[in-house]
Specification:
Elements (H helix, E strand, L loop, with lengths): L1 H14 L11 H11 L2 H11 L3 H10 L2 E6 L3 E6 L2 H4 L5 H9 L8 H18 L16 E3 L1
Antiparallel strand pairs: 1-2, 2-3
Helix pairs in contact: 1-2, 4-6, 4-7
């Protein structure tokens, strides 16, 4: 198994240099597996080269934006960002600095949600609360899908 992990981490490090990999529907899953198999220092080192602009920072929080779906009378979606998860890949201060210079006028819906949830996560941390403290039964930002 260790040989497989080594081969996969080497292949991922090479693949991430190609920006088109970011568009893969399986990118989040691959990124999380790679980060679990690679050393923390190596993950941050590789990702430092990937997160250099406000657009890159927005891409990162979008990739790691969590979704929780509930199917009752309506299909509802709650979104969240865990700063602890982001910290596996980069420094929160680095993301915050890049996102502070972001022009927010032309964001997609998902980017807008990711940015909102990132700000909520920063507020939770500033208030001394855990990442999971934002998971409430009634989220005012909950989205109802049809």
């Amino acid at each position: 198994m260790e040989i497989l992990k080594r081969v996969c981490t080497e292949k991922f490090r090479e693949a991430i240099k190609q920006l088109n990999i970011r568009q893969s529907s399986q990118f989040r899953t691959s990124l999380l597996c790679w980060s679990a198999w690679e050393s923390a220092g190596e993950v941050k080192s590789v990702m430092r080269d990937q997160i250099r602009s406000p657009a890159d920072a927005l891409w990162m929080i979008g990739v790691l934006l969590g979704e929780s779906h509930s199917y009752g009378q309506e299909h509802k979606v709650r979104y969240s960002i865990a700063l602890g998860l982001l910290e596996r890949f980069t420094e929160i201060g680095h993301l915050t600095g890049l996102l502070a210079t972001l022009e927010s006028g032309k964001l997609t819906k998902r980017e807008t949600i990711a940015l909102r949830e990132f700000k909520k996560a920063l507020k939770r941390r500033a208030d001394g609360k855990a990442d999971s403290a934002g998971n409430t039964l009634h989220d005012p930002d909950e989205e109802t899908l049809e």
